[in-house]
Amino acid sequence: MEGCSGLTVAGLGVSTVESVPFHHYRPGGLVLRLYTGPHGAPRLGVEASRRCLEWDVEVCEWMSRPGSFPAYTVGLERLRGLAGRWGVEAAVLDGLESWLHAPCASRLGLPLSARTQGLLEPGGEELGLLEALAVEYTYLLGGGGSNLALARTVEEAVGKGVWVEVVVYLPRPVESSLLAPPLQAARRAGAPLHLVVLDHGGGGPLSRLAAEVERLHWPVYIHSPPYSRLDTRCPSCGTVVATRREGLLDAMQLASGGRCPRCGAGIPVKGGWRGGTPRWFRRLAPEGVYWIDPRILGGRPAGEPGESL
Questions:
Q1: 136: which residues sit within 8 A by CB, 6+ positions away?
Q2: 46, burial (CB in 10 Å: exposed 0-12, middle 13-18, buried 19+)
Q3: What is the pLDDT of residue 139?
Q4: Alpha-carbon distance 288 to 27, whole Å?
Q5: Residue 183 to residues 4, 126, 264, Cα–Cα distance (Å)
Q6: Residue 171 · residue 142 · CB < 8 Å
Q7: Which of 169, 206, 275, 277 is most buried, by the most CB atoms less than 10 A from its CB?
């Protein structure tokens, strides 16, 4: 992408880092979120289109048509302007093989991170441009992708100084033996592991799973919205150091150097943190993401001939 002047995106938003999801990378901050491919593109209701009235243009119908997400190329200068207006701390590449866009996205002049389901292995060149990487094992547990390839990606990223968080989505609590691939990958890389359990199973199965995995590898965190288990506890003394509600950080209290305020144990955090998601953004985007139609920023349909952005 040498000399690129624009990024092609299927979705564009200003997001909390918690909704990416990152939980220990710049907690409480805002990021420019760029969906670079159809996989995982936002599926929003009609309500989302009303937000664009604030921009005096009605061009958000693409958001209200599930399954229809055309791609638009937006100039880097326009994206830099949006990042400055919203005061974001970093940019996040999201979607299928999103890291492939890192060479161009790095020209935004923002710390760059990415999210991947590990369907392909990022090359060293792209990984070296990232500050952080969220690795999801969601689809591998369902039978897709390669556990070995994803484990290699985690180790290679950590070896290049990239902050890595491993995320596993589970429909319900499972036996810890089924989590061996992501557990091993996280342990070997020294990366935090997050288990997002969508149905807590009445609380008991979730508590048993938590007890098992917390004995295996200390930076393991259980997140289960219906069970309100979204807190981060000190791995040493159990003190709650962060409380969340899905994509929002309610509060985070750490001592100097990112340590537990009670016992002084280290809590893995990269890039500093805020006390919580800004209040003004909570009112604007109560679910953690404010979606913006790329056409508002002068985006052109991907592949359309025209002057350079």
A1: 115, 116, 117, 118, 167, 168, 169
A2: exposed
A3: 54
A4: 13
A5: 38, 25, 26
A6: no
A7: 277
Helix (H, G, I), strand (E, B) or coil at 122: coil
User: Domain 8-230+274-301: which CATH class?
Assistant: alpha beta
Convert the pLDDT of each residue in 125-156 to its tens digit.
Answer: 888 899 999 988 865 555 555 667 778 888 88
Which amino acid is located at 287 in the chain?
E
Distance CA 149, CA 42 (A): 26
Residue 83: its H or E element = helix 76-86
Q: How confident is the model at residue 202 (pLDDT cuts 50, 70, 90)?
A: confident
Q: Quote the CA–CA distance of 212 and 215 in Å, as a whole number.
A: 6
Inform me whether the pLDDT recorded for 122 exceeds 80: no
Q: Return all residues near 143 (Cβ < 8 A) that are at least 6 apart.
A: none
Every domain of the chain and the residues it spans? 8-230+274-301
